[in-house]
Amino acid sequence: MRLSRYFLPVLKETPAEAQIASHRLMLRAGMIKQASAGIYSWLPLGYKVLRNVERIVHEEQQRVGHIPMLMPTLQSADLWRESGRYDAYGPEMLRIRDRHERDMLYGPTNEEMITDIFRSHVGSYKDLPLTLYHIQWKFRDEVRPRFGVMRGREFLMKDGYNFDLTREDALHAYNRHLVSYLRTYERMGLQAIPMRADSGPIGGDDTHEFLVLAETGESEVFYDSEITDLKFGDRQIDPTSHEQCRAVLEEFTSRYARTDETHDEALFNEIPEARRRVARGIEVGQIFYFGTKYSEPMGATVQGPDGKPVPVHMGSHGIGVSRLVGALIEANHDENGIIWPEGVTPFHCGIVNLKQGDAQADEACTALYEAIEALGLEPLYDDRDERAGAKFATMDLVGLPWRITVGPRGLKNGVVELTSRRSGESEELPPEQAVEKIAQIYGKAV
Ligand code: ATP
Ligand code: MG
User: What does residue 158 show for φ and ψ, rounded to 5 degrees?
Assistant: First the structure.
């Protein structure tokens, strides 16, 4: 993309209403624009990152066998009356009436709708296990929408639902989700720690939240520092293997890590003092096993092996797709702007032309641009007639992990400059080698 033809409305001033870095930077980098409280338009740069996050979530869900679909945002109140949640949900639910006076709502989550789909089409235990998911906009009329996309009213969520014959199978689905979530966050360049959360009416070890450590996080968290050394890495886990998935769950949840909802001071104090940590975190996902809570009242049964109908065991599992964009910035920025991890960056590298209009510099930039595109990567070429300082400031603000700087002086010696946004380190090298480096970083063959 040539910057002169793009739509990147960066702001010079720091918006006064934004209290935390990610919100400020998303506004300044022209990623979002508030439409009304807690509701945002995703401008082109923000939209690209949102799509990248979404793509990784899709790939990792499907890697473990979960099936994508799409349910609507508007739902009928009748379904929610069946589960008893229409009255129970409270003022966070946006209630709407259509022209025929039918009660509708903008879905805050989809347990009822997916259970209805399941009971209409699945009749036998032979069709299990089944996990369906979608990535769809949700609406929750939060009392205090704030921090930009981190606590919006309209927000994008991946929500998945497992249907299993037995409690044991459903707990496997739970463990499998934990495995896939660990991989998902790591691919984005984030460490998200599974923490025991409030288990609600069912009790037991049946819900974990995934938290990204950040000073601006809304949850207070307590953990054993050893947990931050755990990496999922590129281990190959068979998603159908109960043992393998359980082993991962045990490894990642055996050390103390809890949110304030479930914190137990006495247990916490059993950790050696040097390893005790109290910090803040951003919740970027949650997994939940809830058994037959919806299947029973809504009649979602299957014929079991003995021919008798049994209610299915279910769980639901969410990832905050739009919140992740904010969380990624909270975890990756400095005073000059965003620093995108390679996995989610909106453009793979920037090209800065120090002397626009200089025939040789223009030609070298175009050649680099074409070579990088030919790799299947997307460069952002700052071809505006601007001072070098302004171009660098824009690149630093929007946070592309790599920048190639091209100027007449370097070209005389046959070199351009490749700079890492994260370390700030630069090296001079011939343009072809800069392209090779970029290819290598993104795992592309030259
Ligand atoms: P919170 O405690 O932050 O209000 P929640 O526990 O009510 O969230 P879940 O129902 O677990 O939310 O939703 C799954 C994921 O969706 C959360 O882990 C979070 O990442 C994201 N999410 C929830 N509410 C919002 C919101 N208002 N804005 C943006 N993302 C949200
Ligand atoms: Mg939650």
Answer: -90, 125
Burial of 422: CB neighbours in 10 Å, binned 0-12, 13-18, 19+: middle
The atom number, within ligand 1, closest to the CA of 150 reads 29
Q: Which ligand is nearest to the CA of 284?
A: 1
Q: Which residues line ligand 1 (CB under 6 A)?
A: 109, 140, 142, 151-152, 155, 157, 283-286, 318, 320, 322-323
Would you state the pLDDT for residue 200?
Answer: 53
**From the CA of 317, which ligand is nearest?**
1
Decide if 330 contacts 214 (C-beta within 8 A). yes
In a domain, 327, yes or no: yes
Do residues 248 and 158 share a domain? Answer: yes
Quote the ligand 2 centre to 128 CA distance (angstroms): 26
- Whether 205 has a pLDDT exceeding 70, the answer reads no
Q: Is residue 446 part of a domain?
A: no
Q: Tell me the ligand closest to 108's alpha carbon.
A: 1
The phi, psi pair for 116, rounded to 5°, reads -65, -40
Is pTM beyond 0.85 here?
yes
Pick the residue whose CA is nearest to atom 26 on ligand 1.
151
Strands 257-259 vs 219-224: parallel, antiparallel or unpaired: antiparallel
How many residues make up the chain in this entry? 446
Residues 153 and 218 both lie in one domain = yes
Domain of 108 in residue numbering reads as: 3-337
Q: How far is CA 74 from the centre of its chain?
A: 23
User: What local confidence, expressed as pLDDT, does residue 201 receive?
Assistant: 46
The CA 149 to ligand 1 mean position distance, Å, reads 11
N- to C-terminal Cα separation, the chain:
20
Specify whether 242 is located in the same domain as 98. yes
| Angstrom distance (rounded) from CA 356 to CA 382 | 9
Quick check: is 342 in a domain? no
CATH number for the domain including 383? 3.40.50.800
Cα of 399 from ligand 2 centre, angstroms: 29
> pLDDT tens-digit profile of 149-190?
999 999 999 999 999 999 999 999 999 999 999 999 999 999
Whether a cis peptide bond, with omega within 30° of 0, leads into 129 is: yes
Nearest CA to ligand 1 atom 13: 318
Specify the residue with its C-alpha closest to ligand 1, atom 11: 286
DSSP H or E stretch at residue 350: strand 349-353
Task: Give yes or no: residues 330 and 360 share one domain.
Answer: no
- Boundary of a domain, candidates 278, 302, 337: 337
